[in-house]
Amino acid sequence: MGMSDYYKNLRDKIGNELIFMPGVAGIIRNEQGEILFGRKHNESTWGLIAGAIELGETPAQAMVREALEETGLVVEPEKIIGIYGGEARRFTYSNGHQVEYLTIVFECRIRSGQLTPDNEEMKDLQFFPEDQLPPMANKYSDYIFSSNQEERARFER
């Protein structure tokens, strides 16, 4: 889908200035326990299936929507495994737009659908074993990739 009307209107008003953006990311595993990553068009690094939370949306709804848009899969967020933000989560896009993400990371289960790479948002989609993760655009705590999770979510202090 790309940038929503809300963020387009905001960018029209403030240009490339730094904005705070709440978002979601998913650890989506296949039956072998491998984690799904996507690579956007014209990018060399990989990323989790992720995106911004839109106005009126709950974080879980955003995760379901982003997964469907980016992968063709219907997922069910099962638990929050991490919450990350702060200056270390700042990112500048190739068009100059600056963001600081507050990202809620969900562990998700695949309910249905078919993986559809080379779509509007993603060029490549691939599952990777947790001990062979690809080079990533955004850095996350190693904890979220582990299949040995505690009951409570991790966060930076």
Describe it.
- By secondary structure, the chain is mainly β.
- Strands 1, 3, 4, 5, 6 and 8 form a 6-stranded mixed β-sheet that branches.
- 15% of the residues lie in helices and 38% in strands.
- A hairpin with a 5-residue loop joins strand 5 and strand 6.
The major β-sheet equals: 6 strands, mixed
| Helix content percent band | 10-25%
Sequence of secondary-structure elements: HEEEHEEEEE
**Mean pLDDT across all amino acids:** 91
Number of helices: 2
Distance between the termini: 34 Å
**Structural class from helices and strands?**
mainly beta
The counted number of beta strands is 8
Beta-strand percentage range: 35-45%
A few lines on this structure:
With 157 residues, this protein is mostly beta strands.
SSE layout and pairing:
Elements: H1 5-14, E1 19-28, E2 35-40, E3 49-52, H2 59-71, E4 73-84, E5 90-92, E6 98-113, E7 122-128, E8 154-155
Parallel strand pairs: 1-6, 4-8
Antiparallel strand pairs: 1-3, 2-7, 4-6, 5-6
Spell out the key features of this protein.
single chain, 157 residues, mainly beta, six-stranded mixed β-sheet, two-stranded antiparallel sheet, 8 strands, 15% helix
